[in-house]
């Protein structure tokens, strides 16, 4: 009996030395020895078979053994959790270099917009803004776009309700400006526009335009051409190939479009529409169309940035990929 007791103690000590690492493993070991069906209980059960003389000392020894094992478990539990704690403390290495914070930068579209604004401001334009959500009247009717014109078709326009639209161009602000101010006026209007059309490398469902409007007593188409050519020269340099091409807009007469040569794709790319403000538009806003004349233009900011910075897909402006954005910081 005495030997059994000693062998349990010895076995326990080896187990305790080698085995438990985690609180779960310690618990397993605890029930192996001290549980209801554990080895110590088994020894207590044998007590009945001992002789009456042996029983008191044996009982005392067993109690000591039980107390002993219990104490050693508690110690082991404490030391395991302490060493886990210190491992966690070691995980903070104060000698490591700090993390460099990521610095943001101005989006390439915003940079392009600033360049465009600076060029026009340098030749006397003021900058104005207008609503992105507007009524049918300002986006279409007042611009001489009749009720059944295809530009109003559901395919091109995002309707908020039957008479409210996400503006399809910044030309709506021409009307707001002329309603609010007497001529002469000279403004550029940067802003977002929305079109419900097929998405491709040069077309997206939203993009940015810069509208220009100049109204005065004597304004000629030659001045319009001179102004836009000046802009292109400032923006792209003297050698950029550009062309004016006759076009049609309901709110200008005559109308034209400007194309720039795309060096990457070896083809023309349209960047803006323009023309002399149609007298019908001037009459609509209450300007005397016999006295006042003017020109207007609307340019696509993304396309200008694409040509200037050799960006081959308009969607890159919108997907927020830092690998793209960082190239322009
Ligand atoms: N609003 C026209 C467009 O979005 C561009 C334009 C503006 C044309 C001003 C003429 C005058 O295509």
Describe the structure concisely:
This protein is α+β, with helices and mostly antiparallel strands and about 325 residues long. The protein has helices at about 1-20, 25-35, 40-45, 55-90, 110-120, 135-140, 170-180, 220-235, 280-285, 300-310, 320-325; strands spanning about 125, 135, 160, 165, 185-195, 205-215, 240-250, 250-260, 265-275, 295-300. It is built from eleven helices and ten strands.
Question: What does the model show?
Answer:
There is one protein chain. This protein is an alpha+beta fold. The protein folds into 2 domains: 89 residues; 221 residues, BirA Bifunctional Protein, domain 2 (2-Layer Sandwich). Helices cover 41% and strands 21% of the residues. The protein is built from 11 helices and 10 strands. The strands form 2 sheets. A 7-stranded mixed beta sheet has the order 1-5-6-10-9-8-7, with helices on both faces. Strands 2-4-3 form a 3-stranded antiparallel beta sheet. Helix 1 packs parallel to helix 4, helix 2 runs antiparallel to helix 4 and helix 5 packs across helix 10. Bound molecules: phenylalanine. Phenylalanine binds next to strand 9 and strand 10.
């Amino acid at each position: 009996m005495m030997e059994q007791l000693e062998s349990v103690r010895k076995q326990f000590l080896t187990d305790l030395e080698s085995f438990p690492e985690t609180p779960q493993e310690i618990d397993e070991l605890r029930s192996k020895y001290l549980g209801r069906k554990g080895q110590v209980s088994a020894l207590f059960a044998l007590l009945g078979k001992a002789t009456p003389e042996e029983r008191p000392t044996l009982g005392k020894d067993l109690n000591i053994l039980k107390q002993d094992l219990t104490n050693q478990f508690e110690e082991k539990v404490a030391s395991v959790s302490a060493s886990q704690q210190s491992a966690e403390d070691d995980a903070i290495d104060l000698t490591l270099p700090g993390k460099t914070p990521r610095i943001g930068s101005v989006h390439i579209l915003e940079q392009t917009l600033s360049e465009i604004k600076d060029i026009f401001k340098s030749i006397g334009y003021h900058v104005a803004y207008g609503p992105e959500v507007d009524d049918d009247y300002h986006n279409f009717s007042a611009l001489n776009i009749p009720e059944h014109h295809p530009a109003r078709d559901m395919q091109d326009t995002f309707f908020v309700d039957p008479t409210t639209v996400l503006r399809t161009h910044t030309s709506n602000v021409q009307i707001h400006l002329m309603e609010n101010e007497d001529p002469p006026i000279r403004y550029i209007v940067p802003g977002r526009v929305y079109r419900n059309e097929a998405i491709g490398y040069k077309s997206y469902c939203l993009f940015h335009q810069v509208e220009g409007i100049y109204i005065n007593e004597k304004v000629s188409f030659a001045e319009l051409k001179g102004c836009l050519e000046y802009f292109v020269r400032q923006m792209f340099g003297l050698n950029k190939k550009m062309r004016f091409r006759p076009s049609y807009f309901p709110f200008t007469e005559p109308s034209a479009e400007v194309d720039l040569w795309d060096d990457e794709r070896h083809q023309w790319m349209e960047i803006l529409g323009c023309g002399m403000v149609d007298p019908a538009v001037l009459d609509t806003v209450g300007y005397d169309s016999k006295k006042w004349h003017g020109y207007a233009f609307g340019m696509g900011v993304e396309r200008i940035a694409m040509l200037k910075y050799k960006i081959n897909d308009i969607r890159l402006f919108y997907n927020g990929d830092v690998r793209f954005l960082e190239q322009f910081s």
